[in-house]
Amino acid sequence: MPRSRIFTMVLAAWAALALLVFPALAQEKPKSLYARLGGYDAIAAVTDDFFGRMEKDPQLSRFFKYMSTDSKRRARQLTVDLLCHMTGGPCFYIGRDMRTSHQGMGITPQDWELSVKYLKETLNHFKVPAKEQEEVLKAIEATRKDIVEPPGK
Ligand code: HEM
């Protein structure tokens, strides 16, 4: 086979490969919610603001009243890590699951609604866009069944 023919064939094979590979490379991976929220620092700031609002509320303050500063720091840190994990960030959550860690506290549907109200206030405070707010609230809503206790329990 003449050399020029081999050269043309190799070139054609490379061109075909490039046509297959480059569009796949060019397709940008959708950004995780974690990244769109602004990463770890943003999630930590959201958690601190949210905890602050919950603690100040006369109805919700009962949950935090007798916690030591260290226990509060621990719960805060685990919440940051959980949110990081839930939103697609690079964290590995090592805390307890939501049912185990909240069972027995007697968190009522009213407590839950209040906490959601404060979470919305926090997200607005940090000017989180509507789409990301919706995604955060949806992820939190999924934990409700494990955190809220049916009356009488
Ligand atoms: C009305 C709503 C809520 C209240 C009153 C509440 C209260 C608390 C309290 C008092 C603790 C400390 C428990 C302890 O030290 O043993 C705690 C732990 C924790 N909470 Fe919540 N919580 C609420 C909702 C949530 C939500 C929505 C999340 C996140 C999805 C969350 C994530 C956590 C985590 C990660 C911990 C630490 C778990 C562990 O100790 O392993 N909480 N919560």
Look at the structure and give the mean pLDDT. 91
Can you tell me the overall shape? elongated
- Counted beta strands: 0
Rounded to the nearest angstrom, the distance between the terminal CA atoms is 84 Å
Give the CATH level 1 class: Mainly Alpha
Q: Write down the Rg.
A: 24 Å
CATH architecture: Orthogonal Bundle
Tell me the β content: under 5%
Question: How is this structure best described in words?
Answer:
This protein has 153 residues and is an all-alpha fold. The chain has one domain: Orthogonal Bundle (Globin-like). Helices cover 67% and strands 0% of the residues. It has 8 helices and no strands. It has helices at residues 3-26, 33-37, 39-56, 69-86, 98-102, 109-125, 130-141, 144-147. Helix 3 packs across helix 4 (69-86) and helix 3 crosses helix 6. The model has no long low-confidence stretch (mean pLDDT 91).
List the helices and strands and how they pair.
Elements: H1 3-26, H2 33-37, H3 39-56, H4 69-86, H5 98-102, H6 109-125, H7 130-141, H8 144-147
Helix pairs in contact: 3-4, 3-6
Bound molecules: protoporphyrin IX containing FE.
